[in-house]
Amino acid sequence: MGLELYLDLLSQPCRAVYIFAKKNGIPFELRTVELLKGEHHTAAFAQVNPLKKVPALKDEDFTLAESVAILLYLSRKYKTPDHWYPEDLQARARVDEYLAWQHTGLRSCCTRAMWQKMLIPVFLGETVPPEMLASTLAELDRCLQLLEDKFLKDQAFLTGPHITVADLVAITEMMHPVSAGCQVFKSRPKLDAWRQRVEAAVGEDLFQEAHEAIMKAKDLPPADTAMKEKLKPLVQVFLH
Ligand SMILES: N[C@@H](CCC(=O)N[C@@H](CS)C(=O)NCC(=O)O)C(=O)O
Are residues 183 and 98 part of one domain? Predict the structure, then answer.
């Protein structure tokens, strides 16, 4: 058995890993782990990732969790083109800087916005206090401004003139609030032009394929009682 990637494309870090692997022609077996069915809690999956989260990687006897570690492992093992994760010390440090910031920066804001604006009210039928949603969306706005001012500036891509794994991570993060109907790019021409460059670099077909499931999430049938029970811990996280 060669490389196996355990993914659910509803998940942002999974989409980043999926796009990276596909775009670079890395051969892998897709092992779908359906989060909404609670498949990440099975004993079999815990053998691959004891943290019980996707994405996860298995390469023969070697297993790995955490999307950033997976992206870097793939870039090194398959010697992907230098621009994705440049050898140059300072260019690489810029990518590392974004990858370190995003967990508690953009990813956190975008995921929270998607849960509060779409998944909790539409899929789970629970009320999100309007003042909580307003504060989440204001925080998202601040985060996007930071992305533009601190990272993108007047460059073509987030860390310089070429696309890197940082751009893949960021665009997949931003598609979370987009899927929930947030107008992330509408009043942000700089970010919108960047989005178009990233989509063009990835390829429109691959970009759409990776985002098909999340863009349809708003049409999911309402969760049943068992599903609501399973998702309770996550709802608690996103309602605080
Ligand atoms: N820091 C991790 C985050 C992984 C993560 O939180 N994955 C989510 C999906 S986006 C998950 O599996 N959640 C299941 C759960 O927490 O029960 C990464 O970047 O890979």
Answer: yes
